[in-house]
Model the fold of this input.
Amino acid sequence: MITTPPKQTQLTVLALHPTHAELLDQTALPATVQYVTIRTPQAMADAIQTMIVRGAPAIGIAGAFGIVLSVRIALKSTDSVEAFHQHVLADAQVLRQSRPTAVNLMWACDRMLALLATLIASQTPLTEIVATLATEALAIHEEDLQANYAMGRFGAVLMPENARIHTHCNAGALATAGHGTALGVVREAFAQGKCSMVYADETRPRLQGGKLTTWELVQAGIPVTLVCDGMSGHMMQKGMVDAVIVGADRIASNGDAANKIGTYNLALAAKAHGVPFYVAAPSSTFDLSLASGGGIPIEEREAEEVLGVDGVRYAPEGVKVYNPGFDVTPASCITAIITERGVVFPPFSANLKALLV
Ligand code: MRU
Done:
């Protein structure tokens, strides 16, 4: 267990400046706090792909910032509205394709492109379009922060007194505009005196739990115990866990939820032991065009992530690797979904539609 005195976490994960965007380099954490300057949409797409910025809401915001960089560059390179539009559409395509599973990225790019199309249709001057899209990107950032505070308040109500909460991956301030989705609930529950311990899965292969969730919670003075991914069944069998809370990368209309690989195993263990399993996600994470989780594209990443740790290989030459980045937890394993608009209980199809459409 790691405990430090409570203090406020003030992390800037993403920032948009007049000439560039700035990202907290999550690949260097927790050893080093360093920022990366991003000047082009292509560089933003690379930063998303290499996980300098990661977490579903954060990569949505990064996509929106990438489109702002695109319109700024387009403004300098052409006076033609048609060429300007085509330039931005091409960049948006690169951004959208940088990671496939988290729908927040597509949602944010589409929101920016829809506004762009409206402004072009109303013959808005290009300089004004650039300014309006920057304002929109900042609005996406601010809305995400407020959504996290709201989810924290809704989710904390569900936590029992002295809750020992198990989480997976990093669904915290680092994965969002700030505060976090699942960790936003943890932060609020802790502030209300209701959270006595967080169990953070290390989250192989990239160790978002071991590196990022632990770092965030230590900074916040919230008691955290780091555990290996395979320990949850044993811990629940021993009565050590009162609730599980995770984030999500895409939730289908029936409530099936894609999240970091290993989440499904945790959900199965929770179901077997009668431990409530909560998913916290903003409305930008829902893909109501999908009937079920079977339609969610699952990212497969490079073998090196599994063959070793931090580039240090331990597996023998010649071994095959399977490295899906996400899995889908069926709605039947989920007790409730916490959104910024309220908590949704089963039956998810009807109740999500009522809340979100
Ligand atoms: O591959 P990552 O680190 O981007 O995956 C992140 C997760 O799976 C998070 O749990 C999810 O995005 C929710 S973040 C609020």
The chain has eleven helices and 16 strands.
